[in-house]
Amino acid sequence: DSADKGEYRHYMLKEIYEQPKVIKATMEGRVTASRVLEQALGTEAGKLLENVRHVQIIACGTSYHAGMVARYWIEELAGVPCSVEVASEFRYRKHVIQPDTLFLCISQSGETADTLAALRQAKAAGFRAALAICNVPGSSLVRESDLVIMTQAGPEIGVASTKAFTTQLTALLLFTLALARHNGLSEQQEAEIIAAIHQLPGQVEQVLALDSDIAELARAFMDKNHSLFLGRGAMYPVAQEGALKLKEISYIHAEAYPAGELKHGPLALVDSEMPVVTVAPNNDLVEKLKSNLEEVRARGGELFVFADKAAEVKAGDGIHVLQIPPVHPITAPIVYTVPLQLLSYHVAVLKGTDVDQPRNLAKSVTVE
Ligand code: G6P
């Protein structure tokens, strides 16, 4: 039962370990072996998605990072332009609304004040419709949106969001495929990605089996004050989410950068006191990423790389490599999030912080 820690020391760890199950639950009834069941996303989904020409995503915190990943998917698979913004910025500026724009809010709780305010504004502003991706049935966000895709994460107690994020990504990928079908994605491409989605629970299980290796790596962070997280493409928001987790629960300053931006500033900070964490699935950016890693190494930075074997990142002096099972490039953001969650968790445990209730933070920010 979700309100019970069971055999786990913290809710956060329990929730990390629930991911294979809740990702599966979020797929359930919404996919066959090769297709997304569009009507399972809402009876009106087909009619609505057919005419969407632009997507505006709004969220806060971890949910914002899910939106950032979705932008890569939506533009790559559906060819539909997509903008993503944090709710607290969106609600206080003038914006230009493109015709036929779908407004998409992502929120675990469905009660975040800024996200709700942005939705209420959007409804008055002429968006085509409002879609919510949410984890709490009956929440304000669910009640006030035109179309809802529920994540099936179950109650999330730990303030640092984990299973809500990976189920948001799962729901967002299903949404993207449904949208992409109206925009030229072939049946064969859809089937290939659905097959990759079906592999997710097993792949996340395999990453969870690396837990004790990740706990070992965590030791190197205990006495550090700063860290950098690097990724490219859709792995950049995964790096952002990894950095957010470390900040939230271990109180170590963590900054995420798209790896290609290193040379425009953060490289000046790199020395042996600045661990650099990188996510390196085998995709068409991996060679570029590897040359970024060499730049870090040449400045004495210690690297912690989560990598696909085929990426051929060699472990060595100052380079720690943990192998992640081979994954499809589209689903890689979901799988590669998990080692970063475990890394932050173990650093926080070693530091003795209050993992489930980090200082100054709330699970749901219902006031501005
Ligand atoms: C708070 C929580 C975060 C969460 C964010 C957005 O800051 O501590 O974990 O990501 O709110 O919450 P929501 O419920 O809208 O996803």
UniProtKB/TrEMBL annotation:
It is found in: Cytoplasm. It catalyses: D-fructose 6-phosphate + L-glutamine = D-glucosamine 6-phosphate + L-glutamate. One of its GO terms (cellular component) is cytosol. The active site is at 363 (for fru-6p isomerization activity). Its EC number is 2.6.1.16. One of its GO terms (molecular function) is glutamine-fructose-6-phosphate transaminase (isomerizing) activity. One of its GO terms (biological process) is UDP-N-acetylglucosamine metabolic process. Signal peptide: none annotated. Keywords: Aminotransferase, Cytoplasm, Glutamine amidotransferase, Repeat, Transferase. The keyword Kinase does not apply. The keyword Transferase applies. Residues 45-185, 217-358 form the SIS domain. Homodimer. Catalyzes the first step in hexosamine metabolism, converting fructose-6P into glucosamine-6P using glutamine as a nitrogen source. This is Glutamine--fructose-6-phosphate aminotransferase [isomerizing]. It comes from Marinobacter profundi. The lineage of its organism: Bacteria, Pseudomonadati, Pseudomonadota, Gammaproteobacteria, Pseudomonadales. The gene is glmS. The chain holds residues 243 to 610 of 610 of the full protein.
